[in-house]
Amino acid sequence: QVQLVESGGGLVQAGGSLRLSCAASRSIFSINVMGWYRQAPGKQRESVATIVSGGFTNYADSVKGRFTISRDNAKNTVYLQMNSLKPEDTAVYYCNAVDFRAGSTWGQGTQVTVSS
Questions:
Q1: Which residues fall within 8 angstroms of residue 41, CB to CB, at 6 or more apart?
Q2: Predicted local distance difference test score (pLDDT) of residue 30
Q3: Which residues in the chain show pLDDT less than 50?
Q4: How many CA atoms lie within 13 A of 78 on its CB side?
Q5: Sheet containing 18-24: which strands, arranged edge to edge?
Q6: How far apart are the C-alpha atoms of 96 and 62, rounded to whole Å?
Q7: How far is CA 72 from each of CA 22, 48, 57, 62, rounded to the nearest angstrom?
């Protein structure tokens, strides 16, 4: 089972940018879907962005045009570039990997706080 470690979270002012990284413990070349999810206090975890092995991406409506997900198979890493951040983007961000043969794996999460 792959292990995932997120990094890059922090405190930023509204309108600022952050780049989250999700480092995998092994090659992600064969991992079917990788994605970023977030959970704000008192709310359910929601999908932010996903990317499949072929490169197709999908975004939540709330982040379209502001966030970009990418994967670097050579570095076993998935990124989430977040621009024009808003206070409502404040949440714990989790990385997820879905291997159709091995199942789903979550990282431990990284806190993103956007101040107004």
A1: none
A2: 86
A3: none
A4: 34
A5: 4-7, 18-24, 77-82, 67-72
A6: 19
A7: 10, 18, 14, 25
pLDDT for the residue 32: 93
Distance in angstroms (rounded) separating the CA atoms of residues 84 and 56 = 23
Query: Which two tokens mark 23?
Result: 């480092």
84 close to 13: Cβ distance less than 8 angstroms: no
The per-residue pLDDT for 49 is 98
What residues contact residue 27 under an 8 Å CB cut-off, 6+ apart?
73, 76
Got the DSSP string for 6-71? EE--EEEETT--EEEEEEESS--TT-SEEEEEEE-TTS--EEEEEEETT--EEE-TTTTTTEEEEE
Task: Give the chain's mean pLDDT.
Answer: 96
pLDDT at 78: 97
Structure tokens at 89: 């983007």
* Dihedral angle of Cα 20, 35, 40, 108, to the nearest 10 degrees: -70
